Amino acid sequence: xxxxxxxxxxxxxxxxxLDMLNEGGARRVLRAPSPDLGLAEHLPFPFLAxxxxxxxxxxxxxxxxxPAVGGVLLIGPRGTGKTTCVRSLTDLxxxxxxxTCPEGCLPSDLDDNGDPDVCPECQKKxxxxxxxxxxxxxxxxxxxxxxxxxxxxxxxxxxxxxxQGRIRLERGILARADQNLLYIDEVNLLDxxxxxxxxxxxxQGSYTVRRGAMVGTYRSRFVLIGSMNxxxxxxRPQIMDRFGLxxxxxGLTDLRERYEVYQHVRQYQRNRRRFLSEWxxxxxxxxxxxxxxxxxxxxxxxxxxxxEVGLSLVRQLGIDSHRAEYAMFEAARARAASDGRDLADIGxxxxxxxxxxxxxxxxxxxxxxxxxxxxxxxxQEQIDALVSGDNWEE
Length: 394
Ligand SMILES: [Zn+2]
Description:
Layout: H1 2-9, H2 17-22, H3 54-65, E1 72-75, H4 82-88, E2 95-99, H5 120-127, E3 133-137, E4 140-142, H6 149-153, E5 154-156, H7 158-164, E6 169-171, H8 173-176, E7 181-185, H9 192-204, E8 206-211, E9 214-219, E10 223-228, H10 237-242, E11 245-248, H11 255-270, H12 272-297, E12 301-302, H13 304-316, H14 322-338, E13 343-344, H15 346-357, H16 363-388
C-alpha cells in the first residue's frame, strides 16, 4: 500500500493497475477510515471491494483505459453483480477533454495540412490563445429499458412547448453519452427501434434528428457497455458484434469468496458512507493508476510476435468480423499500459483473446460462405468447360 503511494509521489510513471486487479481486488481494507471525500448521491459500491470476477473487472477497466476497445458485454444470470460492477466504475473514471463549442470542435481536429480543422468561431478563439475545451470526468450514462425513441435521440421538449408555446429541440441520451460510457442493462430486451438508433449513432459517431422543420445534429461517440441474461432472450448479431469484449459472468464457486461478498454487501447496506470511506483512499489510488495507464497507452505498441499470433488465431478460428482483431489488439495495448509497459506481447494477447474472440463465429456465415464457394467453383468449372470447347476463343 505505502509502496504504491511512495512510487506515485516519487513520480514513477509505471501504472500498477494490473497488479491491483490481480491482487484480488485489493482485499486489504485500510486501517483508519479516511475523511469523507464528498461522495456522489447514489454512492455506488466500490470497484475494488468487488470479490473475484477478475475477467469482468479486467474487461471493464481495459475499455475505460482505452475506449477503442469498443465496450463490453456482460452475459450471465441475475444476481451475479454485473450491474453493481458497471456502476462501481463511476469513481474510477478519468477526466477527458470536452469541447465547449456546440459543433464539438477539438484542437486535435486537423485537416490534411495539419492545420486546425475547426469552426470559424473556434478558429478565432485558438488564434487569440483562448481554450476551446475544458476537462470533465467521463460519466456513466444509463439507458433505461423503458426509454422512448425521443428520450434516446432527442425531440421536442413538450414541457416548454405546452408552457411557453415555443418549440425547442432537446438532445437525447445518445448525445449526452458523447465521450462517455453508455450502459444498457438487459440490452437483449431493448426495442429494435432503439437498437437501430444506437447502432446508427455508434457507426457514424453522430446522428441527426428531424422534427418538422427543425433539424439537430449531435456528436455521439460513446463506449457501449451492456449486460444481459441469456435466459431472457437472444441479442441481435449486429449489436452483439458492436461490443469489443464479451464476458460470461457466473456466480462464484469458492465458498470463502461468497462469504466475503456477503460481508462486503452487508457492510455496504448497513452504512454506505462509512463503507465507501474505508475504500476511498484505494479508490483514489486506482483512479490515479487509470490516468497513468491512459498516458502510457499513447506510446504503447504491439510486438511483432503479438501481431502474428493474434492474426493467426483469428484466421484459425474462422472469424470474419475485423472488429475481432481490432478489439483484441486494442485490449492487449490497454493491458500492457495498465501494467506500465510500452510493448504489448503474447502474454497480453493470451489474456485478452478469449474476451475479444468468443462468440464471434457464426455457423450460419461458415455454412453460407461454404455454399457460396461451392457455387463459385461450379461457375468456374462451367466457364472452363465452355471455353475449352472448339467454338470459343479466349
Ligand atoms: Zn467550434
